[in-house]
Every structure is written in C-alpha cells, then in structure tokens.
Amino acid sequence: MLIRVLSLASILFWSIVTSATEQHQELDVTSLSENVFLLTGERVGANVGVVITNEKVLLIDTLVNKHSEKLIKTIEKLTKHPVTHIVNTHGDFDHTGVNEHYRQLGALVIAQKNVSHSKVDCDLCFEDYLSIKLSDDVQVAMKSAVSHSFSDNIVYIPTANIVFMGDILTNISHPTFYQGGIAGFNKAISYAVSLGDENTKYVAGHGFTINAKQLENYLAVTKEIADFVVLNHGLGGNSEEILKNPKFNNLYAKLENKVSIQDTSPNRLKRFIDRIVATEISSDPQVYLGDYAGTYQWDDNEAFQLVHIDNKLLYKELGQRIIELIPVNKSKFMVRGQIGRYYQFSFDDRGSIDSMTFVTSEKSRYVATPIVQ
Ligand SMILES: [Zn+2]
C-alpha cells in the first residue's frame, strides 16, 4: 500500500515537472529588424542577438551552458541555415556558455582580445575595432571598450540601426561598470550614442532595449549616483547611511530600470554602493606603477603578469582574469570594483619586491614571488 501511494505521488510529481519544462523549452523571439532578432527568456539570464542572411547566421552571445538546449532549439526553428559566426560582447560565462557547441560545428568565434584572460577561446580576436561583411548588405562592426569588463565589445549593425551593448547596459538591475569605472562607462556609452540617431535600438546584456535618449539618461543618472556616493563616502558616510539618504533613492528611481524586488533589496543596493566606492577609489599619486611591472609566480606555479599601461597597473593571468590594481600606498593595492580583496607587497633590504600576497575577506592568503629573468 505504501509503495502504491508513493508511486502515485511520484507519477504526479513527474507530470508536473514535465509540463513545467515543456512550457519553457524555447526562448522568446522578438524581431528587431528584418534580419535581426532578440532571444530572451525568463530566468535564462542574458540576452542573445541573431543576425540572419541568405546563407549565414551570426549569434551575439550564447547564454550559460545549462540553457544550451533552449538556445539550439529556438535557433533551429528560426532558421535552416547553420550558425557560422559567434560574436561575444565580453568573456563572462553567462554570455559564452554555448560557444563551444557551435564552434565544434564550424562557427567562427569573434571577440575582443582580452577574452584570452577568461575561459573563452576566440578564433578571430581583435584589439580595437573590427568590421565583418556577413552578406552584400549586412555589415557587423565591433569596438572594444572597458566598462563592465576588460573584454567589452560594442556590436553595431548599421543597416538595421541596432547596437548590442553587452553588460555596459544592464537595466534589469543596477549598472555594473566595475572594471572601467565611470570614466570607462562614459567613454563606452558616448561611443555607442555617437553611432546612432533617435531611432537606434540599444540592446542590453541583461534587460530590455532602449533608445538613444534613454541611454543618455542611463549614463547621466549613473554619473550622478556615482558622484553622490563618492562625495558622501569621502565625507565619512558609510553605505548604510548613503542608502538611507532619500537623495540616493530619488536618483536610483531616475535610472528607469525595470528592477525586480530582489534587485532593490537593501542588501543588493548596499553592495552596489560598496562596489561604486571600490570602483572609484583614488590611487596614491606617489606610487610609481612601473616599479611593480613584471612576471610573477604563485606558490602553485601559476604565472601572471603585472603590466603598466595607460597609467594603470593590470593583473593579467591567461585563461583566468584581467583586473586593475589600485595603490592606496606603496605596499597595499586594491582590486578595482571588488570589495574586501587586496594585494600586499613586501620589499627586501634594497627596496626590490620580494613577494606579493593576495588577501581576501575570507582570510585566505596566496603568496607570489617575482620571476627574475
Ligand atoms: Zn552578464
């Protein structure tokens, strides 16, 4: 009897699960122009763009890997042509998860060169700008940027008047300019605005499509929020006090983002404020960054480089990460945009670096030593 009850319960359970998954086996398709489509879905995270010509199909981003089936099915329904190109708006896993599937089938993966410091393998990696001809009348142009990440790529399709912004534009939660700071964010959005006109469609990496006027508002309000946070933090305010200030909340409302309750929870907003502070942190002008450049090796033998470029010190580890280190003094360097992580340098008697220690809030410590060549 017990067995029967259990099996009936399990049959009921499985029928519920099946009908729920059947409903969500494909993504929603929105037509942005004659041959450009936007794929979205509830709880799939990022957006996907599809450009279809007479014989070729180009995808802009490929979701997380666990949604591969949904993506593949939706594209098969949309077109009989094979996916020939994948363009990534940056190297994060939630935009590149199905790259390899299409790559194995012959698609060319195109990305900005800094994706080499992530898990993405690109076949055509460009430094600053690239334009490809997909057909006689469809051109796809790409421009590198540093705003959300070091591998940001603004993708523009002139004939359709559409710009895919990647995570430079995230209007379903708050803005995330954690690698480029406000300066990089400003540069990226100003470039995107310069491409278009009042009819251009700007597609978010996460969220919804907006026009140039809305994009300019997104930039202006974000700048105001960052200025407000930095000023109040400098005056001694902490993130809790800043969050309680009605001015912060009024500014946040002016962003016109469609946020879920979860995204406006005090914890999420407090973290947003803390990350603005960590992004806009000012460096100690007395520290000469060139003194830190070189090749280093962690105690597990993994090597990385500190590169001094454009008055920045970049940490570059192939296949792993690229981040900017900001000196608060000669021996302590914060990670731009990250909370509670820093690198501590120690020096020998002659003043040369003899070790670099990574310290996180979880109290873990990893020690690296410079490799003398
Ligand atoms: Zn993302």
Give the key terms:
9 helices, Lipocalin, Metallo-beta-lactamase, Chain A, binds zinc ion, disordered N terminus, 3 domains, alpha+beta, 373 residues
What does this structure look like?
By secondary structure, the protein is of the alpha+beta class. It folds into three domains: 26-217, Ribonuclease Z/Hydroxyacylglutathione hydrolase-like (Metallo-beta-lactamase, Chain A, 4-Layer Sandwich); 224-279; 289-370, Lipocalin (Beta Barrel). 29% of the residues lie in helices and 28% in strands. The chain has helices at residues 2-23, 68-78, 93-96, 99-104, 181-195, 212-234, 239-244, 246-254, 266-279, and strands at 28-31, 36-40, 48-52, 57-60, 83-87, 108-112, 124-126, 129-133, 139-145, 152-157, 162-164, 201-203, 294-298, 303-309, 312-317, 321-327, 332-335, 341-347, 353-360, 365-370. The protein has an eight-stranded antiparallel β-barrel. It has a seven-stranded mixed β-sheet with strand order 1-2-3-4-5-6-7. A five-stranded mixed β-sheet has the order 8-9-10-11-12, covered by helices on one side. A hairpin with a 3-residue loop joins strand 15 (312-317) and strand 16 (321-327). Helix 5 runs antiparallel to helix 6. It is globular and about 70 Å long. Bound molecules: zinc ion (ZN). Zinc ion binds next to helix 3. Zinc ion (ZN) binds next to helix 3.
